[in-house]
Every structure is written in structure tokens, then in C-alpha cells.
Amino acid sequence: MLSPNVLICTGNILSLNESKTKPSQNPADELIESLKIVLHDNDGENPVVIKGKKDNALQGIVREEVKITVKVFMSSPNVNLLKEAIDQVCSYLNTNAIDSLVIAYSGKEDLLSSLKQLWVGVEEYVGLGKLSSVGLSDVSTNLFIDLFQWANVKPNIVQITLATCCVVPPALQTFTQENYVQLLTHNDPDQILSEEELNKIVNGNARLHWVTRYQIHVKCRGILSSKGYLVYINKTT
Fold first, then answer.
1. What is the pLDDT of residues 147-200, one digit of tens each?
2. Element (H, E) at 150
3. Which residues pair with 159 in a beta bridge?
């Protein structure tokens, strides 16, 4: 039985033997499988924080020799939740800064207004030195340009899904080239963790606040040394 507010940390999923057996998993299936493994290992407990095996990828490593990239999947434009997500990743990895942060948010309300709310937190954390490269995922060309022109700290990353990478909007391609913005692709689904799947995993009713995925690459060798998820939920009775 989970407590009302729970942070679940999968640890380095590259070390989870169960998940290694399914290399073709998409990110949503990868996350679900990892959560099931970690929660199974904590069966019967009722903690506020559930952690998988401790991630020691940064232990004994010179920080400048690795690159930490994070993608945050937000369920609301609550800037405090975004800052909490960043803080939790930094605390979990025992680091003061993230090299690259991308925000994924697709609310049904005024999307530009919502992203501006979140971006205020991004700008604050860039000013504090917690973030370096920052960007957005799966936004329209016009929306990205509008936010870019409004922002004090300009997004220098924009991600588009692999499902449409063969038809990159010409206007977006031109804008990114002219403004030194990285145009990257990804294969994440529209919804990284649905409410239905979450409720199955926790065996009850839960609301998702955010999911963060971190990756740690060793720069000189270009290899992925660690990858994991942090998931923050609210459990209702």
C-alpha cells in the first residue's frame, strides 16, 4: 500500500536484469517495467520515497568528464513541481547541475501561457547555475518561436518525435539553423505514463505529477553509463 505522496526512483535501469531482457521496449514500456520491478522489491512497505538500487554512476568520476541529460514530463504547468523535479534529480544523483534539460508538456489549455509559467523556473535555475542547455519537446513551430522571442533565456534545444522527423517543418528547420538551436529527435510516446497504467502499477488510484528521465554519458567514450527514472505521484484512497 503506497502512501499519499510518493517519489519512486528506479535507480540505474541498465543494471536491472529483468528490463535488460527486453531491449526493443519503447520508453513507456521501459518505464512501466522498471517501476514494476522496483515496487515489487518494496512490496509490503509504505514509504514516502521508494528507491531501486543506488545509482553510483557519478561516484569517483570527475564531473566534467560526464554529461547529464534530463527530460521532464510534466502533467501540469506548475512551476514549483518543475523545480521540485529538477531538485530531486540533482539530489538523487548528488550533483549540483544538469547539462541538458528538455521539458515535455502538452496541456489542453493555452499552451504558450503554460510553457511561459514553466520557463520562469527554467530561467531561475539557469541563473543559479543548475541548468546549462535547455529546451522543449514536441511544440509547434510558431509556439517555439513565440516562446523563444519572449524568453530572456532562449531555449537552445527543440525535440521532435521520430514519427515526423522525415518531414521537419521547413520554417522550424530554418529558425533553428539561424538561431543556433539544436534540432533533435526522440521516440517517446505522447504520454510516457498513462493514468490507467499508473493505477495498475500502484494497485489503486493515483495522479501523476511528473516523470523525469536522466541519462549519464561518459564524454570521452561516448557511452551511456547510467539511465533511470524518477516518478512523483499522489495516491488517493
1. 999 999 999 999 998 776 667 889 999 999 999 999 998 889 888 999 999 999
2. helix 141-150
3. 137, 184
**How far apart, in Å, do the first and last CA atoms of the chain sit?**
10
Mean pLDDT (whole number) for 128-138: 96
**Separation of alpha carbons 63 and 102, rounded Å:** 20
pLDDT at 237: 60
Position of cell 564531473?
63
**Average pLDDT of the chain?**
88
Report the relative pairing of strands 98-104 and 205-218 from DSSP bridges: unpaired
Model pLDDT, residue 17:
63
Three-class SS state of 153? coil
Task: Provide the β-strand partners of residue 69.
Answer: 100, 215
pLDDT value for 231: 96
Please, are residues 156 and 135 in contact by the beta-carbon 8 Å criterion? yes
How far apart, in Å, are the Cα atoms of 108 and each of 114, 146, 233, 234? 10, 18, 21, 21
For residues 67 and 82, give the distance between their C-alpha atoms in angstroms, rounded to a whole number. Answer: 21
**What DSSP state is assigned to residue 110?**
-
